[in-house]
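User: I'm new to structure prediction. If I give you an amino acid sequence, what do you actually give back? Let's try with this one:
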Amino acid sequence: MSRFLKRISTFGIGVYVMTLAAITAYSTLYTNSTPPPRADAIVCLGAGVDENGVLDPAADARARTCAKLYADGVAPRVHFTGGNDAPNAPSGGQAMAHVAHVEGVPEAVTTVEHESRSTLQNALFSKPQIDDVANIIIVTDAFHLPRSAATFAAMGDWDQTLWASDHLRPNPFWGEDWTVLHRETLAIWFNLLRYSAWRGATALGVQDIDHWLI
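Assistant: Good question. You get back a string of structure tokens that encode the predicted 3D arrangement of the chain. For your 214 residues, that looks like this:
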């Protein structure tokens, strides 16, 4: 039994190290295409927002990046997705949309999804609002792009262009926060398990699982 557990542990550590190395390399080397291709909609993924509706620097950068893409004529629509755990507080999607409106994006060309609290929910809960488009540009940090691309591919049939608002999230004390790569490494595999469980439960006809299973 101990030998079996040792093999499992060794395998798990190996998978973790390889995933971390791949995400680190991707985040470091990723560059946006020049010029960005045309799309039907820009999709801005939420990050953090406090109880007062103030965005963290990563979410703010994503919103401003989407506003810049819209100003450059890349797409005629911008969709913002992200909820908020604080009761009665503005959602992350709403707060990002406000930043974009201040930057010149008309309210008439924006849509907002307010309920999501994970990348899986970003894609699933946004689907009703962007299911009529074929091509989307997904905007988030570079380290988050692979998981976002896989999630949106699993939840819908969109042609995707990936666009990094930044490589890593800023740290208030020492520049870029490299620790987020460890979290992202775990999130990739954790989300795969959650998605598989959600798919299985959906296939079995389990109702009302979207808000707690993914």
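You can read the tokens as a compact description of the fold. Here is one thing that stands out. The chain has a mean pLDDT of 91.
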